[in-house]
Amino acid sequence: MDFESRLNDALADMGLTLDEAGDAQIFCALLRATRDLELEMRPATGERKLYYFSAEFLVGRLLRSNLMNLGLLDEVEGILAAHGTTLARVEDCEPEPSLGNGGLGRLAACFLDSIASLGLAGDGVGLNYHYGLFRQDLADGVQREEPNPWIEPESWLIDTGRSFSVPFGFGDLEARMFDIEVPGYKNDTVNRLHLFDVPEPAAAPEHGIGFDKGDVAHSLTSFLYPDDSDEAGRLLRVYQQYFMVSAGAQLILAELEERGFAPEELDAHVAVHINDTHPSMVIPELVRLLMERGVSFEDAAGIVERTCAYTNHTILAEALETWPMRFIEQVAPGIAPIIRRLDALARERGGGDAVAVVDGGDVVHMANMDVHFSHAVNGVAALHTQILVTSEMRPFAELYPGKFTNKTNGITFRRWLMGCNRPLADHITSAIGDAWERDASRLEDLLPFAGDASFARGLLDIKRDAKRELAEWLRASQGVEVDPDSVFDIQVKRMHQYKRQQMNALYAIWKYLQIKRGNVPNRPVTMIFGAKAAPAYTLAKDTIALLLALSRLIADDGQVSPWLRLVFVENYNVTAAEHLIPAADVSEQISLASKEASGTSNMKFMANGAVTLGTLDGANVEIANLVGEGNIYLFGRSSEDVIGLYDRGDYRPWDVWLSDGELAEALDFIVSPELLARGDAGCLTRVYRDFLAKDYFMALLDARDYASVKERCLADYEDRDAWAGKMLVNVARSGFFSSDRTIREYDRDIWHLA
Ligand SMILES: *Cc1c(COP(=O)(O)O)cnc(C)c1O
């Protein structure tokens, strides 16, 4: 059946024709038609099947990307145009699934897209959070969190009718399996994202995101990362994790049996990937289930080790999870003794307490368990892997020299270029043909166009149109006006001290003061931020309050506002990113060197022709190597310097304040009467005090260098031809960061699926 007939049938079921239907109804009908078509398609098959376990899958809206992968985008655009609407309008009716926090969850989503697009057999395994990550409300000058419901009567979720019984300490809880289909790019493959849910999910809380964390059977799938500032919240996280991995592990063994294999053959036919430490309990759970099927503990541990692989995403200590053994005994008594036996086995292999699974205080170190009982461990960018091997995980790297590999992250160019920036994709194709759509490394074919004035003009025009569209979206969505002829300087990512939005805020103050003194820039600058802060992360929320106060101060100041604007985009998510990234001139990637494991927004910006202003951290290092010095703006201390400063403990922000009057003036302005009149005094004071007393992520150390390199970057922007050349090199060299490349490497070195 052709797609138009499917669409008309879906509308007929709703008692409508296309001409009668509004955009929301057309969205529903398109969703049904797409989903039903996908249900008729087959998943990829291979020698081994991958199960990618992740607490987060930040998939974003799915309609456009599914239609694109099914090869139906042009047809649907045509049908909608004939009926007076557009896909852009229709897709605005699609709620974004809030199943992830940020980069880690978005990476998992890009990976599923690439796995299916390469025709590899691999499904995702996660949880069906009903309110997901909170929706951010900034109305009062501070962040407030609200539930983010996304599951409507008609959604992408398919009830598989399949369920598993998870043996918690309090009794069994049924895990129902819902699927979201994941079509590959024009290859007739559909893989699946399996999301487990409780039978009777709780309703949304009346106000905010506070809810009964003790009511596990109902609230287990309510929110992503429940507040862990009390024991009930921490326990709920353990319940969530065990629920996900137990149901997933049971699914794996059921499918293995359906394929006609014995439990002992698990490692020959299955690859399990552990995305960060949240799914770590899949290791003891698989051992438990194999033992239930008659396999000895020693054999089961060996089979599981040959099956599992683990990705480390951060070296921030706070993110390396540990759980008291008593939590696991309470939540998942079936695996507690297995974890103790795994600890004993690991101790026999040597390495001592530094690499213990269960430490002397009876606390379980999830990452340690992952490294011992996975056959491969990887970091997510070259620098990050190097830091893991030489410092953070050095004892492990000495114990298992062959286990550690690097797999530099990637993004799917289907969503992040072809989907969100069609004019640029078309411009590229008109120059070099469309081979790059299947092999992003072919973007290098653009390099010979470096001297081509009409290609360069096209790049600049497309950027300007994207900036106009962003301006239009900002006006419609939050009522702010921005000037498309200004430089769009964008920092969007989670709000975190290590990402150093506070340093960018200091720049804004410095610039404000400069303009007040008459030092106006060549061209107005629009600084755009977007970020959510974790609900319990006070300093991150304070930094949002500072940025909002600055935004007001600048907008109120008739002397400054023609030259400088600061816009804080509310509720940053994938949909917002798709509007923002095509319109960026400058991509802010300013983390403290050694702290950002990889970053992926840096890659998205690069592919869309933004020029990076950043530190030599994470994948920025690889971007710099690819584009060369003249096409990136680098500043700040190196990761070696930073690691040395931490080791010696001799960084003193106070010294910077004493030695740099201009910087001190900008810093003191945070608690000036002007700013205090426009922002919460408690928030501003805390940010100020933290800068001077602690500044753990050394924003003051790099602030001076940052400001001067940023000034150079803004000055260079005025040579439009030279800037277009930088844009071209960035786009042309971005192909390395395709998640198709990343996934090919995982498959070649770790999964061996085909
Ligand atoms: C890509 C992406 C991220 C990751 O951004 P980083 O700058 O790499 O931390 C976070 N959130 C959303 C919505 C994204 O699309």
Describe the protein's architecture and organization:
It is built from 32 helices and 19 strands. By secondary structure, the protein is α/β, with parallel strands linked by helices. Helix 8 packs across helix 10, helix 10 packs across helix 11 and helix 20 runs parallel beside helix 21. The longest helix is centred in the N-terminal third of the chain and has 28 residues. The strands form four sheets. The protein has a nine-stranded mixed β-sheet with strand order 5-6-7-2-1-8-9-12-13. The protein has a six-stranded parallel β-sheet with strand order 16-15-14-17-18-19, with helices on both faces. A two-stranded antiparallel sheet has the order 3-4. It folds into three domains: 63 residues, no CATH class; 248 residues, Rossmann fold, CATH 3.40.50.2000; 325 residues, Glycogen Phosphorylase B (Rossmann fold). The radius of gyration is 26 Å and the shape is globular. Helix content is 47%, strand content 13%. The structure holds pyridoxal-5'-phosphate. The site of pyridoxal-5'-phosphate has 12 residues, from helix 6, helix 22 and helix 23.
State the main characteristics.
754 residues; alpha/beta; Rossmann fold; 3 domains; nine-stranded mixed sheet; six-stranded parallel sheet; 13% strand; globular; binds pyridoxal-5'-phosphate
